[in-house]
Amino acid sequence: MNKKHLFDYIISIADNSLILAQRLGELCGHGPTLETDIAGTNIALDLIGQTRNYYQYAAQIQGEGKTEDDLAFLRLEREYKNVLLVEQPNEHFGYVMGRQFLFDVYHLLFMNELLKSKDETLAAIAKKGIKEVSYHKRFSGDWVKRLGDGTEESNQKMQEAIDELWAYTDELFDQPEADKTMIAEGVAVDTLKFKETYYEEVSTLLKEANLQVPESKYFIRGGKTGVHSEFMGYILSDMQYMQRTYPNMEW
Amino acid sequence: MSNEQIKNLEEIFEARIARDEKIEPKDWMPEKYRKTHIRQMSQHAHSEIVGMLPEGNWISRAPSLRRKAALLAKVQDEAGHGLYLYSACETLGISRDELYEQLHSGKAKYSSIFNYPTVTWADMGAIGWLVDGAAIINQVPLCNTSFGPYARAMVRVCKEESFHQRQGFEIMHKLCNGTPEQKDMAQDALNRWWWPSLMMLGPTDAESIHTEQSMKWKLKRKSNDELRQQFIDQTVPQADVLGLTIPDKDLKWNEEKGSYDFGEIDWDEFWQVVKGHGPSNKKRMKARVGAWEEGAWVRDAAMAHAEKKEANKLKKAI
Known about the structure:
The complex is a heterodimer.
Chain A: H1 3-27, H2 34-62, H3 68-73, H4 84-87, H5 93-114, H6 120-148, H7 152-165, H8 177-184, H9 195-208, H10 231-239, H11 241-245
Chain B: H1 3-18, H2 31-56, H3 65-90, H4 96-105, H5 122-139, H6 148-176, H7 180-199, H8 211-216, H9 224-242, E1 252-254, E2 259-261, H10 267-277, H11 281-294, H12 296-317
Helix pairs in contact in B: 2-3, 3-6, 5-6, 5-7, 5-9
């Protein structure tokens, strides 16, 4: 087993959850209703919980005595391997729910496959996370429907968000080298297996929500190889602020 | 209803409270009781909601994953407290939208402590330790208050607040046992939060306009000055454990009265902040009003969607 590839693979899954949680955390206290604030925080908490499990395991695989926090807070931007989708900003609630929904559909399909991983730790993390992620998907899907099939204004706003975020969906299925080796080992999820299902599921809900399924075939990618959007540096300067300003301290 | 009948009802009502019976939303109650409860409970709810902001300010910068999760959970608890307190208020015949309107227009107050900025991570510790500590002292007696929905909400709120208080103390403890920079950060936070925390327990008894009636209705069981003394006596030994110095040169143990003497509170500062001129009043209100206004289209959409669904259901039924 190629330890480096296993480590890279775990990090790429963990980073998705971490960065999405970070984006959701920015919203806490600023949502359109108290109920959505509470739900958004819940999702962020679930994602951080998963993230911690992945990083703890990755640190163990790496065997350099690093902690979950070293991995979460002390890497360079190019070393984060999250998809571009999760780092997109909270432009408005339509973007927040659109981003969440486009990720959640993928995330649940992913978790259902990770459950079958030959790696017992990853399978166990998936088992624990499936219930959480299916709740996230229901929540974000319901909001996409409400906003798509609400007022004329909300329909336009939701459509605008979906149209813009659509460009980041294809990257979810990219398989960098570490993924390919780990798929061959039966450890990683072969995301191509459910790519079609993903687009079917997403399209069905968008239609139900009275929204157009974007036809654009122009996709943007880069996060999985560490080439991020301009937003990422700002996310990290917030997130790493304490660890960078006060190195080697415990909190 | 004749005046005499009302007087009778009032006597029965006061007797029920004296017997420690709970008043429920559908029971008869004097108008003043209803209004006072709406005022106090909504003020409490608003404090929870505005209180999410100073701590929310550090979620994206929390120094570890564990701290980030704990802070998120804490701020989420505050949203939950706001939610049940608004619901408890609604049982008295006022809507959440009306209550928000009162907050946004400045008619309703919220705890002034949240108008101070959170400038370092240690402020997350100081808020938990001191602000939640003072809140508990204020709120524990309310678990036995006369209005049922408020009393029941407070049982849960107090349990969670006491957890937050321990969590805040633990943040401080970690800082105080860390590097000199961390300890300085903790001391600086105590210096800034100590006096506002004392002010949080309200004006002195001589200045407090609501105390007497509130005592009768068990909305208050001890005076502001008694609560403040209790807070100081409980907190000073905790500061000693942390190895921090309370920023009050007049603070000293008074053997005779069995409690601490303390220095003069700057009430001018208190009133300045209460009247809307504290360091963060405008920022907090902008954040709340902004969230509400920017969320209007979302709430409208949810209503419109629910109506469409309902109409479709009816169409199918016919």
